[in-house]
Specification:
alpha/beta; 7-stranded parallel beta sheet; 8 helices; 7 strands; 44% helix; binds 1,4-dihydronicotinamide adenine dinucleotide
Length: 252
């Protein structure tokens, strides 16, 4: 790998919306051949058309990260069709915000199944291909919720804390295979899904606790994501890159 990403290959999970969609477009704009994976194929069609219209290369892959057979099929299809797999953006994730006392065990299981078990399944399967081809870069999308506490997000926060420690442990196991494993931990990023909340009184109060006094924008993650994807971060593995406007180090 060189610092340039052109001609490299990537799989982005959960690419049908939000940050996954953004990361897929970003990588494609740098010349990366991108496999976009999600359960909602109809939404992927539009994204693939957008990427191709701007001169990029995109492959549609049906993928449910909670299903081992689906993960095996999707990773194999991506690596075979693109001619290898250099980068994995393990982005798919869900949050069910609820007080712990009201959380059903199915709601707990669903968040762990996607955010922790799913991240392991995709990372393990992709790392096998990467090790065979001589290396690669895995970027697990964490959250500052995996480092700090928050209201009504116990399962989500636990899953992201697990993802962060999984990242470190995979990093040491895979270092000799030249597969780097890092986590990107965003703070609150404004998307369609949370725009309404952040316009509310409670949302405004939350923004006041962010030292930079604003929410993140998807573009704020571009530099850190490209760094971890490229060989510019060749000596980084097991790192957790926090991108949150100072939110997680706000004063007591
Ligand atoms: P989103 O809900 O728009 O995107 C999540 C994507 O994951 C969706 O496309 C969804 O269909 C997909 N997904 C869920 N379960 C799946 C499964 N079983 N198989 C395949 N795909 C599945 O949310 P957003 O905000 O774009 O989140 C993306 C990642 O970023 C998540 O891991 C989230 O925890 C993380 N994150 C988001 C932050 C934010 O403020 N938006 C802050 C910190 C982390």
């Amino acid at each position: 790998m060189t610092d340039s990403l052109a001609g490299h290959t990537a799989l982005v999970t959960g690419a049908s919306s939000g940050l996954g969609r953004h990361f897929a477009r970003l990588l494609a704009s740098r010349g990366v051949k991108v496999a976009i994976g999600a359960r909602r194929m109809d939404r992927l069609v539009t994204l693939a058309e957008e990427i191709r219209a701007s001169g990029g290369e995109a492959l549609l892959v049906e993928l449910d990260v909670t299903d081992e057979a689906s993960v095996t099929q999707a990773v194999g299809q991506s690596a075979d069709a693109l001619g290898g797999l250099d980068i994995l953006v393990n982005n798919a994730g869900i949050v069910i915000a609820k007080p712990a006392l009201e959380m059903s065990i199915d709601e707990w299981d669903a968040q762990i199944a996607t955010n922790l078990r799913g991240v392991f399944l995709v990372a393990r399967t992709a790392a096998r291909r990467m090790a065979e081809q001589g290396g690669g870069s895995i970027i697990n999308i964490a959250s500052i919720a995996g480092l700090r506490t928050g209201g009504h997000i116990s399962a989500y926060a636990a899953s992201k804390a697990g993802l962060i420690h999984l990242t470190r442990n995979l990093a040491i196991e895979l270092a000799r295979s030249n597969v780097r494993v890092n986590a990107l931990a965003p703070g609150y990023i404004e998307t369609e899904l949370n725009a309404e909340f952040f316009a509310s009184k409670a949302g405004e109060e939350l923004i006041k606790r962010i030292p930079q006094r604003r929410l993140g924008r998807p573009e704020d993650l571009d530099g850190p994501l490209l760094l971890l994807a490229s060989d510019a971060s060749r000596y980084m593995t097991g790192a957790v890159l926090v991108v949150d406007g100072g939110h997680s180090v706000n004063p007591l």
